[in-house]
Amino acid sequence: MDILSISSSALKAERIRMQTIAENIANMNTTRTEGEIAPYCRKEVVFQEVYKKSLSGVEATEVLQDSAPFVKMHKPGHPDADKDGYVLKPNVDLHFEMVDLISASRSYQANLVAMKLSKDMIQKTLNMG
Question: Torsions phi, psi of 28, nearest 5?
């Protein structure tokens, strides 16, 4: 793989990661999913290195549900509350998601810079001759 392919695979993986984070944030108050009284479960992206010859790239191999417990809140007037007045809230922490989003965004930016520098080097090499 060349540097453009490596950076391209990282861009694709980080895009999937950012989409998953956005979905987590959008559903952080969802207490009912698919008609069931069950909260939204946070999702995480799993990355794996891809080896082809001597250089590697990365890909998002799967999106897993987080096994962290749901948050139990006392809200007796909530339509999804149990008989004791408790509602299960999603296992999504906004602060954690925002830090993860910043990390994914910075990684995406770094790979864009790497692609631009590679393109510039190739262009300069072609202009030499």
Answer: -70, -10
